[in-house]
Design brief:
Tetracycline Repressor, domain 2, 10 helices, Arc Repressor Mutant, subunit A, globular, mainly alpha
Length: 231
């Protein structure tokens, strides 16, 4: 790896660690440079802003999630279970996502952070598209799904992105208000996404499983106690 690439990777690694431990708002570019003993010129050679660093971290996170999902899918022989696994792993509420999402969720709704949110959603969709296509094609070959359109993958991924984003907004709202997230609201979000996906794929009713409700609720509980909110 070239020296410039090493520096870029170090900036990303240190930035993500600081963003997750201190909070995105509380971490400055100088904080990052103090840890890596770097210069502002070196930082701006690789990134145009702190937001650009976060956008790159989001892309890396999406790719890593898809890689984990792909490995798990290879170990799942049943086509429908493989499809359900890909759909559920798309949602960034896995245990390994907790620190990252606790950092990201409080800033998702800001006007100036909209670009980061869209980049993360696009990165998730791009990374998971091959996995979704492969899993759904296997279900189609087994006559489990009969999509209403030849390429339903874009709409399915959009539904999943909308589902997790609305859940994240709910988690942040409740954490700010100091209240526990209502499981009924989570169930409503999940059921809406599930029913729409089943309709797009013409899959049997109730055959598309997303994350279990208890997983969503446990994530909301822990995230609520760990999220940091800027002034």
């Amino acid at each position: 790896m070239r020296k410039g690439d090493e520096t870029k990777q170090e900036i990303l690694q240190v930035s993500e660690r600081l963003f997750c431990s201190k909070g995105y708002d509380e971490t400055s570019i100088q904080n990052i440079l103090d840890v890596i003993h770097g210069s502002k010129g070196g930082f701006y050679h690789h990134f145009v802003s702190k937001e650009d660093v976060l956008r790159t971290i989001c892309q890396r996170r999406a790719e890593a999630a898809a890689e984990r999902a792909g490995k798990a899918a290879l170990e799942t022989a049943d086509p429908l279970k493989r499809l359900a696994l890909v759909l559920s792993r798309f949602l960034p509420f896995q245990r390994e996502d907790l620190s990252f999402m606790c950092m990201l969720m409080p800033i998702l709704d800001r006007t100036e952070s909209a670009f980061v949110r869209v980049c993360y959603q696009d990165a998730l969709a791009e990374a998971f598209l091959p996995l979704l296509r492969e899993a759904e094609n296997a279900c189609r070959a087994a006559d489990i799904t009969r999509p209403v359109v030849p390429e339903p993958y874009g709409p399915v991924l959009t539904l999943l992105n909308t589902c997790w984003y609305e859940a994240a907004r709910l988690f942040v709202r409740d954490a700010r208000g100091g209240v526990k997230t209502d499981p009924a609201q989570l169930l409503s979000l999940m059921d809406t996404a599930r029913r729409c996906i089943e309709a797009l794929l013409d899959a049997p009713f109730g055959s598309i499983a997303l994350l279990p409700l208890e997983t969503w609720y446990a994530f909301a509980e822990e995230a609520g106690s760990r999220m940091k909110f800027g002034n």
